[in-house]
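Hi V.,

Quick status before I head out on leave. The structure for the redesign project is tokenized and pasted below; the design run finished overnight.
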């Protein structure tokens, strides 16, 4: 089901660019924003109803929008809402994080930080070299990758909310967290 739905979105992004262009043809920024948010919400809702990750479906919608002439305008009009929702996303992650449990996994956390930092530095620098960047620019690419871990939080949150993450008793979510 997931492959069929996401495959259909991919085909739409390739072959329905003209229809998407017409859908968003308006001079009003308010109507434009409503159309972008409406289409994204509609497709994410359909994905959720079919048992597909709404986050992944929204990503595919973004790739479809990115192939249109409206991509720059979408970024410009949507960016304030994106920043607001990003703040709420991290607020929700913070609400479900119990910092008193960090001491129990401090060793594992330290190893993970060292390994992921080294991995991002090496892979980013190597990628920079592959693209023909100078040594300095390649290292900057590697260093730029180090603070990028938000997608891991997205995946962890989706797994926890879908009930696929098995939390040992000492890692249970707080009593204020809602269950799905």
């Amino acid at each position: 089901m997931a492959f069929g739905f996401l495959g259909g979105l991919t085909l739409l992004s390739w072959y329905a660019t003209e229809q998407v262009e017409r859908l968003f043809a308006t001079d009003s920024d308010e109507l434009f924003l409503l159309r972008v948010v409406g289409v994204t919400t509609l497709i994410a809702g359909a994905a959720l109803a079919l048992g597909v990750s709404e986050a992944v479906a929204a990503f595919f919608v973004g790739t479809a929008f990115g192939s249109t002439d409206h991509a720059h305008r979408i970024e410009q009009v949507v960016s304030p809402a994106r920043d607001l929702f990003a703040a709420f996303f991290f607020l929700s992650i913070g609400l479900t994080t119990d910092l008193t449990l960090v001491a129990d996994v401090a060793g594992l956390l330290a190893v993970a930080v060292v390994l992921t930092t080294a991995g991002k530095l090496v892979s980013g620098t190597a990628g920079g070299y592959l693209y023909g960047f100078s040594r300095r620019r390649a290292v900057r690419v590697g260093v730029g990758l180090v603070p990028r871990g938000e997608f891991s939080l997205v995946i962890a949150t989706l797994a926890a909310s879908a009930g696929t993450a098995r939390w040992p008793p000492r890692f249970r979510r707080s009593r204020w967290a809602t269950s799905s």
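Above is the designed sequence. Residues 41 and 47 are 10 Å apart (CA to CA).

G. will cover questions while I'm gone.

Best,
W.
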